[in-house]
Amino acid sequence: MVQTRMMAPGSSGAGFDRSVAALREVRLRAELRITEVPAPTRIAPHAAAFTADVIDPADPEEDLATGRFVVLHDPSAPEAWGGQWRVVTFARAELEPELSGDPMLGAVGWSWLMDSLADRDLAWDAEAGTVTRVVSESFAGLADREPSVEMEIRASWTPTGGEIAEHLRAWTDMLATIAGIPPLPDGVVPLPGQRR
What does the alpha-carbon distance between residue 92 and residue 125 come to, in Å, rounded to a whole number? Predict the structure, then answer.
């Protein structure tokens, strides 16, 4: 696997290309499917984007969570970023309906992301984001549907240490967490079981 370090100021697009190659080679848990997709073109001179889905081990056709991971590189180091690199992410999963009124849900969702980065011993700066809960209740002809709750975590940060590929791994750890899949050490395969 390609190992890429954060590039120094003044680095070229070749460093970005090596980082993207490392992202493409990341090995993830069996429940995660990752696909490279077209990246935004106006935010930075260099960008790469990936979507990820956490599948239900009991039903591979069902997604438990979905998200998007975008890495941006601008050698001019925009002031708002505080560096040459920026990671921009989105994650969404359906949660148990009883969580809809939990006042700590937003703080817990944000902590899942920060803990995932810290658990991989990564360094970052200028983190920003939102955690949104969406509660859907059905009425009239749809009244027999159960209420549903979705959590959305939108976040960005400037990687200041560690490999870009490790930031992707940390983000997918968080994505698995919001999907209700328990954390596992790298290389360990989960036994089939019920979702929490």
Answer: 23
This prediction has a pTM of: 0.84
pLDDT at res. 148: 83
Q: How far apart are CA 91 and CA 65, in angstroms?
A: 7
Per DSSP, 163 falls in state: -
Phi, psi of 172 (to 5 degrees): -70, -30
Long-range contacts of 38-45 (CB under 8 A, 24+ apart): 39/70, 40/70, 40/72, 43/72, 44/72, 44/73, 44/74, 44/86, 45/13, 45/73, 45/74, 45/75
Contacts of 10 (CB under 8 A, 6+ apart): 75
- At 32, list the tokens: 């995660």
Task: Give the tens place of pLDDT for each residue, 154-191.
Answer: 999 999 988 999 999 999 999 999 999 876 665 565 55
Tell me which residues of the chain have a pLDDT lower than 70: 1-12, 183-196
Which tokens in the block code for residue 163? 């490999």
d(CA 49, CA 89): 9
Cα four-point dihedral sign 32, 88, 13, 119 = negative
Under a CB-based contact definition with an 8 Å cutoff, are residues 38 and 49 in contact?
A: yes
